[in-house]
Amino acid sequence: MAQASKQIQTQSQQQVQTLSPQQIMVVKLLELPAIELEDRVKAELLENPALEEAHEEPRDEDYTNPEENNISTEDGGNTDYDSLSDYLNEDDIPDYKLQENNRSKDEQAEDIPFADATSFYETLKEQLGEHELDEHQRQLAEYLIGSLDDDGLLRKSLESISDELAIYSGIETSEAELEEILKIIQDFDPPGLGARNLRECLQIQLRRKMKQSRRNDHSLLQTEMDILDQCYDEFTRKHWDKIQQKLNISEEELHTAIKDLCKLNPRPGASMGEAMGRNMQQIVPDFLVDTDDDGTIHLTLNNHNVPELRISRDFSNMVEEHTKNKANQSKESKEAMMFLKQKMDAAQGFIDAVKQRQNTLMTTMQAIIDLQRPFFLEGDESLLKPMILKDVAERAGLDISTVSRVSNSKYVQTDFGIYPLKFFFSDGYTRQDGEEMSVREIKKILKECIDNEDSKAPYTDDELTEILAQKGYPIARRTVAKYRQQMNIPVARLRK
To answer: What pTM value is reported for the model?
Structure first.
């Protein structure tokens, strides 16, 4: 007996977060460091004729009679152009260069040599240009490139990147689509870029070697690939006997494969930066922090190369002329008027976005100073407290995602040197006596233990774990090993 099919209609509510074009612009400007903001402002000045630099001029001469710039609306003002009056008054020069005048003209932000003209990001974009991609694919690829860490690895999940693209850039995509784009990036030089973990990083490099090698080398490379595919845990724990038994290979084959694997680069991005002369790049700090002898801390935003902006005087005058003669306007004149309004809307929106960026940056940096005040007074790293994005977000009254964007690729110049904002963030541990300690301080204690060890019988990670526990730091052995590796300290047998 045939079954009848039924169609059921249901209704459900779903909350979807969408950002306006203005909010998207603010988010994008927020991510830019100082030197890239300068380029962005210059580009906007070229693209939008309604935007111009506000040159230094005496205000009493410029604005003797502010009412001269107001739009006349003698007939009651019931027109489509009345909103333009918002742009035509003495407030059209925004004061977004907050506190910049507190510094003397001779006092410039310190330019620190740190990388050459071609950045890591730009180099990867150049390689991206060698592939035929549509605009949507290119946007995804550039976002993925921008999400790589200093080692050239992708630590974020594709799911979170997909969410970020939808929320902050209005770009819809899927994990599968991002996976395809990521494969393209993983084919860039040096090999290993775009890997999501160390294992994948080494596998990418091995696959590249297998493509480029002679056939008689494939046996060794296949053994190495088998080690990563089937015995990765044993490989990281140096359980060579287990690998030998599992793969049924000789001791000589194992030794040769391990020796070759150790030649692979676990940090392709870092090595790329060094090869390009990255430590010769110029860093322009985004913030300037000065500390007085009495403990007063002064914070300023470094905008010394970003011009002040205002609505173009020529556009203001044209709008005024059009408005005076609106009764006799032709269709072409009305279209011209709408063009002027659109450009002025865009100019004002950009000015507001730059101003909001400044306020958000200042609020975030002030929160960091408040939370890490002892460091800014003394410059001692051991005084840094455990601090995560959530701590700053709560103190600044901002979203965690906003604080994350401010902290990324931003630098602050202090009396003790220039630091990336990420320097001030670290997780914390609670000691047995209840005192909270930062990871940085724990690393310092760990290094002191290793520096003072007997060189003939260096401490193993297990012994270091016990020593730290005795000092009041109950940390797992794998955590001790992780911190040791992050400080580039070799294992015990290599420290003899």
So the answer is: 0.49
